[in-house]
Amino acid sequence: MLPFRQPANTMDVTPLFSYRKFWAECLGPAPELPMSRAEMDALGWDSCDIIIVTGDAYVDHPSFGMAVIGRLLEAQGFRVGIIAQPAWDSAEPFKVLGPPNLFFGVAAGNMDSMINRYTADRKRRNDDAYTPGNEGNRRPDRAVIVYSQRLREAYRDVPLVIGSIEASLRRIAHYDYWSDKVRRSILLDSRADLLLYGNAERAIVEVAHRLAAGEPIHTLRDLRGTAFVRKRIPADWQVIDSTSIDVVGPLAPRTNPYEDNTSSSGASCAVVGSGAADPARAEPITLVGTATADRQTVIRIPGYEQVKDDGALYAHASRILHKETNPHNARPLVQAHGDRELWLNPPPIPLETDELDRVFELPYTRLPHSSYGDARIPAYEMIRHSVNIMRGCFGGCTFCSITEHEGRIIQNRSEDSIIREVERIRDTSPAFTGVISDLGGPTANMWRLACKSKEVEAKCRKLSCVFPGICKNLNTDQTPLIQLYRRARSVPGVKKVLIASGLRYDLAVETPAYVEELVTHHVGGYLKIAPEHTEEGPLSKMMKPGMGSYDRFRALFEKYSKAAGKEQYLIPYFIAAHPGTSDRDMMNLALWLKRNKFRADQVQTFYPSPMATATAMYHSGKNPLQRVTRHSDTMPTVRKLGQRKLHKAFLRYHDPDNWPLLRQALKKMGRADLIGNGKLHLVPPRQPARRHQTVAPGGPAGAQAFATQHTGLPRNPPGRRKKSRR
Fold first, then answer.
1. Using an 8 Å Cβ cutoff, are 503 and 466 in contact?
2. Pair type for strands 438-440 and 386-388
3. CA–CA separation, 693 vs 691, rounded Å?
C-alpha cells in the first residue's frame, strides 16, 4: 500500500465508534483490564488480542493514557491486557499474559521517562508519582526502547506499536539533553513496526481493526499520526527539499514587554496565497515550485547524519516540523537515517465533541488496579476528583511539549458530558468530600475557543494564536466557560469547584466577567499563573505576552477579590536559564520580584524536553522562530553549570546562601550599586551571623512565598496531560 494520500476533504475520516466491533465484544467490558493470567482466566479469556506495556502503574482513569487506549480498544470489541512497570532485566516479565493475537502497544507512561527520572540538573530522582508508594526506579531510562527490546526477545514476530508522549516527542532525530547529543528517531532504536504520535485514538483503532482483518502491519502506511521506516521513496511521490521552502516576511516585531499587547496588537493568521490583511506580520511558508496535479509531495528535512553535527540544520529541521503540524494542511515529512527513510505522515484529525465525550465516558473504574491494595499513587490522588474538559493548546509556548503532542486545535467535551463526570465522581468515589479539584486541561480557559473561520484555520501555519498578540481571527469569548462553572458548582453534593489548570491570563482579560467568576468562586486562596519572565529577550524566545497583560489581569484579580471580600493571592511563576536569557535579564527579574515582595522557595532551570522549539534553541544557538541559515545570529543560551546556578540564584535573591554568588556577579556586571541594605538594593554587603528563614510564616508575606518549577511538561497534577505555563 502506498503511503498516506491526503483526501480532498481532510475532515473525511471514519468516526471513531463506527467500526464493526470485533467478535470479543460479546464478552462485555472487564471490571478492570487484566494484569495476570489468573485475571484472564476469571474473565474466560484464553488470550489477549492486544497487550499494552506501560511505565506507569495501571490506574483505570481517563487521565492515564494506557487506560484511555485500553478501554477504547475494549469498546471496539478487543480483549486488552496491561503489563504495568515490568522488571526489565529479562524478557520473562513480558511473557506474563502470553503473546497477543494482534500486537503489543508500548508506552513510557504519561511522562517522558527521562524527565520522570531526572531533574533539570541531570540528578536521579528518588521518587515516582506514577508508582505505588511513590517508589523510584520502577521504570528504565528510555523506557519505550527498553520495553521494545525485551518484547522482541520474548516474541520476535509479534507486531510492535509504540506510542505515548515519549515516542511522540522523539519521532524524528532529536536533541537529547541527558546524553547531550542528537539521537536517532526512537522508531529505529526501538525496532518497532509503527510509531503513533499525538492523541492516537483514531490511529490505534484503525490499526487494530486492520490487523484483525488480516492486513500485515508493514502495509499500514496510509494512517495519519503515524511514522514508519521504509527503504526508498515511492516513484509517484515528488520530493521537495526543505531548504527550498522559503519564508515570506519576518517574524512580527515585539512591542515593549511592559505594554499590554493582547488583541489590540494581534494580527490575523497568515494564509498562503490569500492576500491576508496585515502582510507585515504574515509568516506563511510557500513552496519554490509546485507539485503536478497527479503527484503528491513529501518534504525532505535534513537527515540524522546532517543534523547531529550541524546546529543550523537541526534548527531548520525543527522549524519545518513545527510548520507542518496543522492537520488541515500538513504534508508528509521524510528524514534519512543512513540508508533508510523515516516517513512521518500528517497529524491526526482532532476528535469531534461527541467522539471525545464517548472516550471520556468509557467504563473506567477511576481507581488504581486492585492488585495495588492500599498503596498510595500520588499522581492518581492529585487528579482523581478532577475533570478534563478539553485537549490541545494554541499558545505555542516554545518551552512546552504539549502542543507538539496534542496539537493546536482545541478538542472540546460537551457541557453535559462534563457534568455527568462530576456526578459520577460524587456518586462513586468514597473519598469525595464535595470538592472538584479541577475543571481544566492543558490550559484552563481555552475550552470552546477556536478560529472564527474554518477556511483560515485550514490554511494557517502560525505557531501560536496568541503571539505576538491575540489573532483577530480567534474567538476569545469565555462566556460558555462561565456557564459551565456555574452549572458544575450547582450540582447537588458539590461544595466547591476549583480551577487548578494553568490559566492563559492574556485570554482571560478579554472576558472580564470570566475573571470575576473565577476569582469569586473558583480560587482556593492562591491562583498560580506564569508570566515566565519580565524581559523582552526571554519573552520573545518563549512566545509569551508582555508584562502589561499580567498587570491588567492582576488589577482585575485584586478588584474582584476585594469585591468578594476574600483575601486571595496571585502567585507568578518564572523560568531561569531559558534560551535567550542574559544575566542582566535575570537581574532585572530579581529586582521585579523584590519590588513586588515575591520570594521563590523552590526553583528549577529550563529543562530541554525533546522536540520543543526552545530545546532547538538551546542545542543550536539559533532561533527557529525565524528563518534559519548558517549566517543567522547566534542567540545566548545558558548551558554552563555555573551560569545556570547564577540564574537560579537571581530567582532566589532572598536566600543568604546565594548572596556570595550574586555579589560577585553584580560586581562583574558593573552593578555593585545593587549591593547594600536599602530597599532598592538586591543583596546585603555581608553574610548574616545565622541563616534567615526564607519563607515568611503566614500572613500576606507568607502567602506570597511561592515555588517555581519548570519541566518543559505540565506543572499541574502529574496524572494529567496538562500544561500550566500560562
1. no
2. parallel
3. 7
H or E, element range at 702: helix 699-703
Give the C-alpha distances (Å, rounded to integers) separating 514 from 246, 522, 596.
Answer: 41, 11, 25
For the chain, the domains span: 23-211
Q: Is the dihedral of CA 132, 137, 143, 147 positive or negative?
A: negative
Show the 3-state SS of 370-419.
HHHCCCCCHHHHHHCCEEECEECCCCCCCCCCHHHHHCCCCEECCHHHHH
Mean pLDDT value across residues 539-556? 96
Q: What is the pLDDT of residues 107-143, one digit of tens each?
A: 999 999 999 999 999 999 999 999 999 999 999 999 9
Long-range contacts of 627-632 (CB under 8 A, 24+ apart): 627/246, 627/247, 627/319, 628/312, 628/315, 628/316, 628/319, 629/312, 630/312, 632/312
Residue among 55, 83, 59 nearest 145 (CA) = 55
Q: What is the mean pLDDT of residues 503-515?
A: 97
- Answer left, alpha or beta for residue 91, where phi above 0 means left and psi between -120 and 50 means alpha: alpha
DSSP state of 81: E
The whole-angstrom separation of Cα 622 and Cα 579 is 10
* Pick from 467, 591, 474: nearest CA to 540: 467
Give kind and range of the element (H or E) at residue 439.
strand 438-440
Instruction: Provide the grid cell at 396.
Output: 505555542
pLDDT of residue 12: 73
- For the chain, the C-alpha Rg in angstroms (whole number) is 25
Phi, psi of 280 (to 5 degrees): -65, -25
Angle at 651 between CA 647 and CA 652, to 5 degrees: 115
From start to end of 265-315, where are the E strands? 285-287, 296-300
* Unique residue bearing C-alpha cell 480498544: 73
From the candidate CATH numbers 3.10.450.50, 3.40.50.720, 3.40.50.280, 3.40.630.30, the one assigned to the domain spanning 23-211: 3.40.50.280
Distance of CA 398 to the CA centre of its chain: 11
Cell 462530576 maps to which residue?
A: 422
Inter-residue long-range contacts of 558-561, CB under 8 Å, 24+ positions, other chains counted: 560/515, 560/516, 560/519, 560/520, 561/519, 561/523
Question: How many other CB atoms are there within 10 angstroms of residue 309's CB atom?
Answer: 11
Please say whether the beta carbons of 397 and 710 come within 8 A. Answer: no
Kindly report whether the global pTM for this prediction surpasses the value 0.70.
yes
What percentage of the chain's residues is helix, strand, coil (to nearest 5)? Answer: 35, 15, 50
pLDDT tens per residue, range 588-645: 999 999 999 998 877 878 999 999 999 999 999 999 999 888 888 899 899 999 999 9
